[in-house]
Amino acid sequence: MKKKMYQNVVVTHLREHSSIYLFVIVLFLMGVIFGAIVVNSLSFSQKEDLYYYLSQFFGQVSNGKIATSNDLFLQSFMHNSKYIGLIGLLGISIIGLPIILILLFIKGMVVGFTVGFLVNQMGWNGFLLSFVSVLPQNFLIIPVFIVTATAAVTISLKMIKRQFMKKISEPIIPMLGKYVLFFLAAGLLLAVAAGIEAYLSPSLMKSVIDSVQ
């Protein structure tokens, strides 16, 4: 019974905000594509410099000289939490709507650039490395960013309508309470993603690096 109720809530939510979800997903994918295009626009010397630092990093991974898993977990969790925290604050600031969209685009661009550079420089091996180093945690992180950005855009639009058009009659305190709880739940998912990045990805990367060397 509860499962069906939750499913109905999710379906209703997706139906009500489908246009915003579509816009946010398309914007994120545009960022990914732009990031991949930027790789091709780099000069040969820039690519050589980046690949040198990348090789140094892979050497450290192979030798087990990277930061401890606990440090990686904290770095990943704090970075992503600050990112969605900023998106959340911008959502209730009324004037933050364009910045939310820019942050989402930048997130997509970083993912696209990282994967694009690895594939551009290392071919199939680069694809394998991106698959084990970038994708595992991003299977959670990307949906969290898309959903939280959608929530932030939605509440921002509601705040704008409330402030300037007087069209929203929903009490603001319960609405903000749900919004905060939503972002706290997103934070828990980011903790799981940080765990994957810290405790699973390095060992996967090491096995792939050792196999391609």
TrEMBL record:
> Does the record bear Metal-binding in its keywords?
no
In what way does this protein cross or attach to the membrane? Multi-pass membrane protein
Keywords per UniProt:
Cell membrane, Membrane, Sporulation, Transmembrane, Transmembrane helix
The keyword Translocase appears for this protein = no
Span-the-membrane segments of this chain are: 20-44, 83-106, 113-134, 140-160, 180-200
Q: Where in the cell is it found?
A: Cell membrane
Source domain of life is Bacteria
Quote any Pfam family the record assigns: SpoIIM
What task does this protein carry out?
Required for complete septum migration and engulfment of the forespore compartment during sporulation. Required for stabilizing and recruiting of SpoIIP to the septal membrane.
Record note on quaternary structure: Component of the MPD complex composed of SpoIIM, SpoIIP and SpoIID.
Protein name in UniProt: Stage II sporulation protein M
